[in-house]
Amino acid sequence: MAQTHLFSPLQLRDVVLKNRIVAAPMWQYQGRHGQVQDWHLMHLGRLAAGGSGLVFQEGTGVERRGCGTLGDIGLWHDDMVAPLQRIVQLMRDCGTTPGIQLMHAGRKARQLTPAQGRGALPYQADIADWEAWMPIGPSAIPAGKGLDTPLPMSLQDIQQVVEAFAAAARRAAQAGYQVLELHAGHGYLLHSFLSPLANQRGDAWGGSFDNRCRLLLTVVEAVRAVWPAGLPLFVRLSCSDGVPGGWTLEDSIALVQRLLPLGVDVIDCSSGGIAGSPLRGGQSATYGYQVELASAIKAATGARTMAVGLIVHAQQAEAILRNGHADLVALARELIYNPNWPMDAAQKLQDAQDFQMLTKNEAFWLERRKATTPDLQPSTFVR
């Protein structure tokens, strides 16, 4: 057995990830009034126990009006810290690095969940802050057909959002997270300011490329000022809108060159979200269909990148890293299917770590099972 790229450690500031496998943020839609539930403890605990080097908590709202659905969780109040500390401690006990993604839904607030068909949430009289939960955005342009038209943000709104991101980052540090990611993709608030398809403002926060980048850069500066210097900061970008007139890969490269000096450590490279999926005309996603974005960003800027999007096979993930396309690989639905994917990948790649990525007790029993179980062929069990 030998050391692979997939199971090599990666140091980011003062944090060392034990391997390059990342459990991507996955919305659970199980929150109640913004608070996490036992479901989140179970979900993140099983991902952490499965051996991923970094496990991200789902997109966590920085203010109430930034919630996408009724089931979103948040970090906009101090009383939300303690329940998260319990989750963080469990993840650390499992040997993983706990991460959190902060976000604001913006134009995509007050919606149904994907399983409910998405679309605008029908009016519910029992939601006391229904009007205050109105979607907001850079301009009065809805995120899609049938969705509510967002309220164009005032200068006061913009300042409040910047302060909300910083306050949530401070609380995330108090909760014990070791990696923080800002969600600036998939059509949510920060992305909507970047894209000319959503941002048609005529002030300092819209119009030119520099003006459209201003909100994200301002948020990064505010967050980096309160997020501990020894802890890494990621930014998720939709590196391309995938539609004419939208945000492009070239725009992303120019933006990343501005982000790195502000203290951003890793670019999480996704795509689409402003006008649906970047896949058009009956196309279907292929394995690793966004890896080329991570590769291009890395080559053009020297940034560490994370690849995401239908990464499902051990050999595929290893090749992405071995060929220098990215520094990390993020999995989502594949980890729902098999939370122990990292252990399975180590066996398939014949990596020396094998069961050692698990907790000491689990590793003991699996090593013992391996040593005492005869190497039988499937035909042995046929009677």
Automatic annotation (TrEMBL):
Keywords: Flavoprotein, FMN, NADP, Oxidoreductase. Residues 6-351 form the NADH:flavin oxidoreductase/NADH oxidase N-terminal domain. InterPro entries: Aldolase_TIM, OxRdtase_FMN_N, YqjM-like. Its cofactor is FMN. SUPFAM superfamilies: FMN-linked oxidoreductases. Transmembrane segments: none annotated. It holds the Pfam family Oxidored_FMN. Gene3D superfamilies: Aldolase class I. GO terms for molecular function: FMN binding; NADP binding; NADPH dehydrogenase activity. This is NADH:flavin oxidoreductase/NADH oxidase. It comes from Comamonas piscis.
